Amino acid sequence: MQETGAYGERLRRTFKVARAPSLVAKTLKNARIAITEIRCDKANTGLSEPIAVEDAFLMTVQLRDVPAHDMFLDGKQIKTAFLPVGTTSFYDLRSSPVANSISAFNHISFYVPRAALTAITDKEGIPSVDAFNHNPGVGVQDPVMHNLVRAILPAFRSPGLANQLFVDHLTVAATAHAVRYHACAFRQTATRRKTLSYGEVSRAQEKLSEHLDGDLRLEELSDECGMSPLDFASAFEETVGGSVHAWRRDLRIERAKRLLVRGYEAREVAALLGYEQVSDFVGDFIRKVGTDPRSVH
């Protein structure tokens, strides 16, 4: 099959590596999704070659930690961060992505042209989408994508044993999952977004619940949505009906209730939930519950 998209040999030339094995899913009518493994064990290999502009996307899952890299979209440098193994990034090929490879890297890339994206949304009954509004320089943590890629890896390690049905199934499953949980209806422009998607809210709430002690910066939440902290805070409140701070505070109180019932003292609960002063915890608890936590048994 002649390669006409950003996969296989084209991606090999883009990243200037020795080889780039690829697989092509053939299950979608009039569309294809291709998977390519790119591996470079050298650091500081410089800028990637430009990828031809087209109405398509690359979904990339990291197979090793990438401590440092630079990223440019439409010629402008964007924010980047450490990419731990398993990080998924979405690249809009209408935006001419170019990477500066500072660290060595190894990743799997799914090439998803517009026809395949449309076929997936039609097949899965998902509303039409136009973009993945995440900052690819930061990426998102998605264990489902990571595990699907790990399942596909044996097809690259032992090509002779690769079953086409297996490849088709996992490729379409990964793409459908990404579309359902990470895509959005409109490509992000300079216009401020006013709401968050269901997936964005769920991931933000999960992160907040994991950091009830307050050890989480708003910027960490906003980066995953490709938004400024101010825009994210406004969109969260519009979508959820309350501020990020209020949502975390209420969750802390619910967690506090369970700890108090289990026999923890108020001062112990305050410390576990990150309150600097017991009095701050007592005040929050009384305002929310109407009862002094020191009287809960």
UniProtKB/TrEMBL annotation:
Transmembrane segments: none
SUPFAM superfamilies linked to this entry: Homeodomain-like (SSF46689)
Domain of life: Bacteria
Keywords: DNA-binding, Transcription, Transcription regulation
Pfam families for the chain: HTH_18
One annotated GO molecular function: DNA-binding transcription factor activity
Domain annotation HTH araC/xylS-type: ranges: 202-297
Official protein name in the record: HTH araC/xylS-type domain-containing protein
Organism expressing this protein natively: Rhizobium mesoamericanum STM3625
